[in-house]
Amino acid sequence: MLILLCHWPLLVQYNLVAEIFSVVDLAATDWLQGPYIYALYDSYGISTHDIERLFVAGYGSSMVFGTIVGSVADK
């Protein structure tokens, strides 16, 4: 217990960095998987136009629902 109390500022700082990294990691993961999802859809024989529509629908719904959920979570 004494060891944890002595290192409490470091633990708090570590948790803050871990939370920030988690948010950035989740955002980057969604962005980085785009080319692979495109290749997956293409391998299934989905047309380029339909793939474009799926991407726009996905990012558009993330924008709308992310804004709504974010504002509800902040209350």
Structure summary, number of beta strands: 0
Query: Which regions contain 5 or more consecutive residues with pLDDT less than 50?
Result: 1-5
Order of helices and strands: HHHH
Overall geometry comes to: flat
Q: What average pLDDT do the residues reach? A: 76
How far the N terminus sits from the C terminus, by CA atoms, comes to 35 Å
What labels would you give this structure?
75 residues; 0% strand; flat
Describe the model.
This protein is an all-alpha fold and 75 residues long. The chain has a domain of 42 residues. It is 89% helix and 0% strand. It is built from four helices and no strands. The longest helix is centred in the last third of the chain and has 27 residues. The chain is flat. The N terminus is likely disordered.
Put the structure in a nutshell.
With 75 residues, the chain is mainly α. The chain has a domain at 34-75.
What does the secondary structure layout of this molecule look like, with pairings?
Elements: H1 2-6, H2 8-32, H3 34-43, H4 48-74
